[in-house]
Amino acid sequence: MSLALELFARKGYHNTKVSDVVKSAGVSQGTFYWYFESKEKLAIQLIEDGKEKLNKVIEQGYRKHAGSVDDMVRSSARLLTDLFEFADQNRYLMALLLIKGQGADPLVRDAVSQTWLTFEEAFKNNVNRAIELQMLPSTIDLSLRVTILVSLITGVLTKWLFGPMHDVDYKSTYPPSEIAEETARFEFRGLMG
Amino acid sequence: MSLALELFARKGYHNTKVSDVVKSAGVSQGTFYWYFESKEKLAIQLIEDGKEKLNKVIEQGYRKHAGSVDDMVRSSARLLTDLFEFADQNRYLMALLLIKGQGADPLVRDAVSQTWLTFEEAFKNNVNRAIELQMLPSTIDLSLRVTILVSLITGVLTKWLFGPMHDVDYKSTYPPSEIAEETARFEFRGLMG
Amino acid sequence: MSLALELFARKGYHNTKVSDVVKSAGVSQGTFYWYFESKEKLAIQLIEDGKEKLNKVIEQGYRKHAGSVDDMVRSSARLLTDLFEFADQNRYLMALLLIKGQGADPLVRDAVSQTWLTFEEAFKNNVNRAIELQMLPSTIDLSLRVTILVSLITGVLTKWLFGPMHDVDYKSTYPPSEIAEETARFEFRGLMG
Amino acid sequence: MSLALELFARKGYHNTKVSDVVKSAGVSQGTFYWYFESKEKLAIQLIEDGKEKLNKVIEQGYRKHAGSVDDMVRSSARLLTDLFEFADQNRYLMALLLIKGQGADPLVRDAVSQTWLTFEEAFKNNVNRAIELQMLPSTIDLSLRVTILVSLITGVLTKWLFGPMHDVDYKSTYPPSEIAEETARFEFRGLMG
DNA sequence: AATGAATGAGAATTCATTCAT
DNA sequence: TATGAATGAATTCTCATTCAT
What we know:
Four copies of one chain form a homotetramer.
Chain A: H1 2-11, H2 18-25, H3 29-35, H4 39-60, H5 69-89, H6 91-98, H7 106-132, H8 142-162, H9 176-192
Chain A binds a DNA duplex through residues 17-19, 27-35, 38-40.
C-alpha cells in the first residue's frame, strides 16, 4: 500500500496503473482486487489514513493554557515544526494531498478536500482558543485571517517539500525548524493585524 | 479553445476526453486534430497562453520609484488587486494552473511549473527592486521570504478563487480589493521581518 | 504524379498518405481530388502507364528473323540490356511493380499482376518465335521453362535494382550490359536444356 | 498466431486489422495485447520464427563431401526439393516473406529483408563449399552468379507457389521434385559458366 | 488467498474523402 | 480550378476489472 502511495505521489493518480502497483508489490493483478475494491477506493483509503495521522499531529499542538506573546509564537513554531517534520517524513502522502490528488476522480478529490477542511477547522479552533485566552485580539474578519493563515501554511509546505517544480524528490536547504519559525513569524504578524 | 479550458478546469485533464471537447464545441473529432496536434499540445498551449497574460499583469505592477512605507503597502495591494481581479476573470485558467494541471501528463505539468517559476521570478525582482530603493531592509534570507510570500499569494489565491473544496464555481464573499489588502498586510509585515 | 510514384516506391502504398502526395506537389488536399478520383485510382493509373512503357521496351526486342545460336544469345542480351536500362531509368516505377505494389489494395495488386502477366506473355511469344524459327528445340515443358525464365529475369532485376535490402536508392556495381549478358547466358543454357 | 499469419498472407499487413485477427481467433481485442505487444511486433515475430525454420531446411542441405558433377546436380535438386516442399507446407509464411512483407511498416520490412540476406548467405556458403571441393570452377564473378542463382530460386519459388497473379491459394501443376530438378539444371548450367 | 489470462468499453489518433467558397 | 477546413468511420491500443482455477 505504501508502494501504491509512492506511485500515486510520483506519477499522479491517472498515470499510476493498477498494473504498476501490482508490479511494484510483486503480486498479481487479481490479488490487488482481493485486497482493494478498486483503484479509486485504494486512493481514498490512503488519503483517509493519512488524514488521521495528519490530524493527530495538529491535535497534539492544540493550545491549552494562556501565555505571553512569546509563548504564542513559540508554541506556533513548535506546532509548525511538528507539522513540517511530519510532512517531511510522509512526503508521498503530502504529495498526494497537496499536489496530485486534485487530478484524480471526483471521489478521490473529495477525500483530499475533506482532509484540508478538517485541517483548516483544527487551525480555526486553535486561533479561537487563543482569542478565548485573550492572546489574540478578537476581530470581525477572523475567518478571513485563518483562511489566509491556512493558505500560507499549505503554500509554504508545498514549496518547502517539493520545490518550485513540484518534484517529489526535492530537498529544501532549510531545516523544518527554520522554515517553521519564519512561517510562524509571518503568521503571528499577520494574525496580530 | 476556451471551451476546452473550462472542461480541463472542471473535470481535470484526464477526465476531459477529446470527445467532450469536440462535443462542447459542436464539431467532429477529426476537426479537433485539424486545429491541435494532440490533447496534450492543446493543454500546453492553453497554459502557455495563460502564462503570457498572467505575466503581463504582474509586469504592469513592477515597482519603478521609491516611496514611503505606505506607498509600498498601497502599491503591493494594487498589484495584488490586479492579480486577484485577473484571476477572477480567468477562473478556468487559474484552476488549470493552480489545481488541475498537476494531475496531467509530464509535459503539461512542466508547463504549469514553468508558469509558477516565472511568476516567482517576477515577484523576486519586485522585492529586489524594493530593497534597491531601500524600501525594504536587505536581509540574508530574502529568498526564503520571497518563497513564503509567493506561497502565501498562491495559497490565498487558490482558496479565494475555489474555496476549501476546490470548486470551480465557488464564489468568495470577499471582493478582490479586500483580500488583496489583507494579503498585502500579511506580506508587508512578513517581509519587514 | 511522378512525385506520387516516388513516394509509393519509397514508403509503400499504405504508408504514403494523400497528404504526403499533395505536400510534395505543393498543392492542397482538395486539388488532389480534382485530378484523381481516389488514391487507389492514382496508383492504378501509375501502374498502367508504366505497363505501357514497359511493354514498348519488350516489343522492340521481338525476334523477327532466324539466326545462329550466337545471334540468339546476342539478341537476348540486347533485349535484356534494354530492359535493365529502362528499369534503371524508371526505378520508382519498377519498385512499385516489383516490390511495393503487392502490399496495396486488391485492385492495385491486380494491376500489378496484370502487368507481369503481359510481360510473361511477351516473353512466351518471343521464345515461341525462336522455336518457330528453329533456333530452339521444341520441348514439351516450354511453359515451365518460360516460367523459370521470367522468374529469373524479374528476380535478377529486383536484386540488381534494389539490392538485398530492397533499398530504392541502391546502386549495383554491375552495369546493365554486364548483368544482362550474364543473365542471357543463364537463360540460353537453361532454355537449351 | 498461425491464423494471423494466414491473414497477413492473404490480405497483406495493412489490410489485416487487429480486429480481423482476434475475430478469426475467437478472442477479444484485449486478449491480443496480452499476447503480443503490437501488431507490428506480431508480424516481426512471425517472420523471425519463419526465418529459423527456413534456415534449418537449407542448413540440412549443406554440402559436406566432394562428388561428381552428377552428385552435384542431384544434391542441388535434393536441397531445392526440400526447399520447395517446405515452402509448399508453409505457404502463408512464404507469402509473407516473398510478397506481402514489403508492403508493411519499416521494421517488418527489415525483418523480411534480413531473412533473405541470411538465405543468400547460406547459398553463398554452399557454392563456396562446392568450389573448395573443386566441384565448381572458381571464377571472379562468383558473387554475381550467386546473386543470379538466388534471384532465380526466389523468383521460381514465388511463381510456383502463387502463380502469375500472386494468389495464395494457387496450386501449380508441377510437383516440387520436378520444379526443383528443372531449377537445379538451370542453376548448374548457369554456375558452370 | 492468489494467480494470470481474458474481457470489453472506451481512449486518442489517423486519414481518405467531401464540400462550401 | 483550387483551397483548406471539416468530417466520421475506422484503427490501434489501454486498462480497470472479472473470473475460472
